[in-house]
Amino acid sequence: MSDDIEKLKMHSPDLTQDNIAKIRALFPGCVTEAAGEDGAPTLKVDFDQLRQELSDSIVEGPQERYHLNWPGKREALITANAPIAKTLRPCREESVDFDTTQNLFVEGDNLEALKLLQETYLGKVKMIYIDPPYNTGNDFVYDDDFSESTAEFLERSNQTDEAGNRLVANTTSNGRFHSDWLSMIYPRLKLARSLLCADGVIFINIDDGEVGNLRKAADEVFGEENLIANIIWQKKYTRANDARWFSDNHDHILCYARDKQGMSLNLLPRNEEQLAAYSNPDNHPKGPWKATPLHAKSGTNTNSFTFESGVTWTPPTGTFRRFNDESMKRMEQEDAIWFGSNGSQMPSRKSFLSEVKAGVSPVTIWPYDEVGHNHEANNEVKALGLGGLFNNPKPTRLLARAMVLATGSDDIILDFFAGSSTTGHAVFQQNADDGLNRKVVLVQLPEPVEESKPAYKAGYSTISDLSKERIRRAGAKILEGDTHPDWNKDVGFRVLKIDSSNMTDVYYTPDATTQADLLTRVDNIKEGRTPEDLLFQVLLDWGVDLTLPITRETLHGKTVFFVAGTALAACFDDGVDEVLVKDLAARAPMRVVFKDTGFKDDATKINVKQIFQSLSPDTDVKAI
Known about the structure:
The chain folds into three domains: 86-137 and 191-268 and 361-498, 3-Layer(aba) Sandwich (Rossmann fold); 272-352, no CATH class; 513-623, no CATH class. Helix content is 31%, strand content 20%. By secondary structure, the protein is an alpha/beta fold.
């Protein structure tokens, strides 16, 4: 048995290698070992062999084919798959109910956030809603660097960007105006898809400017067969009479499923108007009903039917009978046929409210009176004392409609273009209304607020600061009102900030390290990083839920973190001895992690695996 404790990799997954593993599982002979850039052996795809396996199903060269292409697409895909050596650092002082909440607010570049969340949320997110930049020529897009190799990207990602500038203006004069926007959105959609669960759904808000390109990109990422609907949201209720051509009163919301055939949407509850259509004028024991036709637009049976009352009914010209003779007789016997209040009107069927579906199917047009409009959204933030500080927030009723259709109790909702945090506000409010305890993950770049803007003058230096304040206030206000008795009242959020790795650069680039460097870098942890910082990087690397409760205990003079009881135990102190190791092993945690340089002596380090193998053989033991 090796005495070396397995090391955590401490960087996001290399999705290219994951894809190679999938090809290897399907076509083992098409993956081989070859020398990498550094001369070390690595797995590579043998495309000549793969061509033979797929024979006539390959399109190559200038051959015509249907596909979406733009300058920069290949580089965008490579960047989506490349790993990054970054981490999420907890920020208790900006969080609400840090120790107990199941909601997350991730501050940083959303491309990096999606990579960091791959292990933890892979296949677990039920609904994604995003409102990305519309590419109007007046807004910004993420400035992604697509010119680097995977190795260069990984190395650079371990560095801190002093300026922190991730957004650039994308004006219509840019020769790659649409291409730059597609290169921004495409890798983010690729990463987002892998987070969706099998019956998950994504809603993407967009205007007419990029809806065509977005539709093609999303068709490629999710599969055009998984498009559920192109929803039209009526965002304005007034006409812009100064419009040059048309008053722009709508947005698109593209809705895609991870697997359309393996999922279904919830029904919408009937509104008061729909319920008012049902009544019980004859005091029927089955309760309220409404009259519905006995004929249909299609069918084959046009024969007349004579009821026991002697009334003969014939489907109107051009229509067909909806029911056969047996069903008609049964309905008459059950007093489910209505001949009008005086008994002489054209017969119809009594459709009982108690027997129809519990709700109504959604339609693809969402009017403002049902889901809100831009003015309503501005009034919502104004009611929180933040009026005029956000640009074009969305109404919470819009997000509530999507949530009611796509989610259930305890589902996870992700918004990686959080902006004004409408999604967070809406999740809190909908949970308070129906008690389903959904969880939300928000991601927002700390984009600087221009000094001329009202938000800056109000004391907010970044969009993420303003976004967090919105959900702090929204949560507090919701708790003041009437709420569902089953709601857990979780209006908190755990703030995690993207930063360079907690590990020193030598940890990632040993080939560039001299013997002298090693002597001065015995500890591989960056100066200034706290044990809780290390804990969250371990949670990320191991794919442990980032919202699980965390407690800390002092055992034998050392600080030990326990995540959700026995889900994970971690000690990053120096001087760990066998007494502490045996105490931890006796608790039989699922996982345990130590600092590689934290053991009292070599004997303790050598014996750790043997101690756990003896006292808790199912525990996964690793080090950083």
